[in-house]
Amino acid sequence: MSANTPQRNVTVSTIADVARYIESLTSEEFFGTCELIFERGRVVLVRTTRTLKPHELAGRENRGASNEQSR
């Protein structure tokens, strides 16, 4: 399962910008995919998709279930 990474205002216009962006994902311990689209040698799109591990989803579902039971 995956969830889209929250939108960020990041300007990526050079390969150095792309490298810095990927380094920032690494420092956040990002788990997912990062897709780069090039046109005529220039980066025109950077798309990231965050992947959630099953144990991360279980924590989210349990919180919702406990809220329902308390009503």
Describe what this molecule looks like in 3D:
- This protein has 71 residues and is of the alpha+beta class.
- The chain has one domain (2-69).
- 41% of the residues lie in helices and 30% in strands.
- The chain is built from two helices and three strands, in the order βαββα.
- The protein has a three-stranded antiparallel β-sheet with strand order 1-3-2, with helices on one face.
- Strand 2 and strand 3 form a beta hairpin.
- The relative contact order is 0.19.
- The mean pLDDT is 75.
Number of strands: 3
Tell me the distance between the termini: 29 Å
- Compute the number of helices: 2
Order of helices and strands: EHEEH
Strand content range: 25-35%
The tally of structural domains comes to 1
Quick one: overall form? elongated
What structural class should be given to the helix and strand makeup?
Answer: alpha+beta
Major sheet attributes = 3 strands, antiparallel
Describe the strand arrangement of the main beta sheet, using strand numbers. 1-3-2
- Rounded to an integer in angstroms, the radius of gyration calculated over CA atoms is 17 Å
Helix percentage range: 40-55%
User: Which parts are unreliable, with pLDDT below 50 for 5 consecutive residues or more?
Assistant: none
Tell me, rounded to a whole number, the average pLDDT. 75
